[in-house]
Amino acid sequence: MKKWDCFAKITGLGMTCLCIFGILAGCSRGQEAARENLQQEPEEALSGETQAPENNEAASETDERGLSENIESESAETETTEPEIKEADWSEYFEGLNGAAVVYDPLAGQYTIMNQELAGTRRSPCSTFKIVSSLIGLESGVIDPEHAVRAWSGETFWNEAWNQDMDFPEAFRASCVWYFREVANEIGRESMQEGLEQLQYGNCDCSDWEGKLNTNNSNRALTGFWIESSLLISPKEQTEVMERIFGEDSLYSMDTQNRLKEVMLVTEQENRDVQIYGKTGMGKAEGVVVDAWFTGFAENDGKKIFFCVYLGRDDAQNVSSQRAKEIAVRLVSGYFDA
Question: Are residues 122 and 216 in the same domain?
């Protein structure tokens, strides 16, 4: 073999080896680069993940602010307006008696009040509370209108009308205390308390359950927490309670409301345009009348108002629940005529 041929072969072999070495070196560098990329990618991916929650959190805060603003805006739009209070001079009906009167007209969104100070003063509800004890009794089933007769004990009471067996309508119209004392006992203190709180009835205090605070009577058949005792309510609150019972948003059954309307109807108004429904109440302290009431509601041509007339102690004049009723009937009739 010639030297040149040998050199060529050796040179060619060397070049071939160099090429192979270059390729291998390139592959190695490519693998290292790939490894570097693989090491970087998770970091970049992780970096991307840590940024995304920040963006989401910001977006969430924005959404929450927007939702809060919308709720506040809707609340402001749906917020109910407090009824207007209008002063009235109904002294002509009271003829100098110490008293107060309240008429609440929900359609007009207005209270019309004579003697605001006295109208906001809490006093014993006395027998006006029979509306509420009847309500709770009817709703709970303690009073079954079809089987509501209760037996007279035989004790002779000062009111002759009470000295007999009584059914519910008779007992309500005669304001028979012993009948409703039994009703209250059967309702029970716990259920009565729940009923008072649902109605937001004055101070909701029936703690003197037996009526031992009553200084006018010690006969427990004729005393209770509602007669010159622990339970107190103002004339204005009386109208609010009447609206909760007989108003559009009443929580009580129509059957119960209708049963109450039957016994509360002022019979003198039966054939007149204005139908008046109510209950009297009167309380004494040491033999002197200190509270006299007539409260309820009235309807005329689809319009309904809620009212209360209250008379306080007046040593110069005769005070009675009958006088409070007479004043209320005239006042309410005049309100519709105005």
Answer: yes
Half-sphere exposure in the Cβ direction for 281 (13 Å, CA): 29
- Say if residue 143 is in the same domain as residue 234: yes
Query: Residues in the chain with pLDDT < 50?
Result: 1-55, 57-59, 62, 71, 73, 75-78
What pTM was estimated for this model as a whole? 0.77
Domain CATH number, residue 135: 3.40.710.10
Nearest to 137 by CA among 183, 196, 188: 183
Closest CA to 307 of 103, 132, 106: 103
Distances (CA, A) of 67 to 55, 75, 296: 18, 12, 44
Q: What angle do CA 261, 265, 268 make, to 5 degrees?
A: 165
Report how far Cα 83 is from the mean position of its chain's Cα atoms: 16
* Boundary (domain end) residue, out of 55, 79, 103: 79
Same domain, 162 and 286: yes
Examine the domain organization and report whether 150 and 281 are in the same domain: yes
Cα–Cα distances in Å, from 313 out to 181, 292, 318?
26, 8, 9
Burial state string for 286-312 with b = 16 or more CB within 10 A and e = fewer than 16: eeebbbbbbbbbbbbeeebbbbbbbbb
Q: How far apart are CA 278 and CA 261, in angstroms?
A: 8
- Do residues 68 and 97 share a domain? no
Our count of domains for the chain comes to 2
pLDDT tens digits, residue range 177-236? 999 999 999 999 999 999 999 999 999 999 999 999 998 899 999 999 999 999 999 999
- Count CB atoms within 10 A of the CB of residue 51: 10
Distances from the Cα of 330 to the Cαs of 5, 93, 94, 257, 268, in angstroms?
A: 143, 7, 10, 24, 12
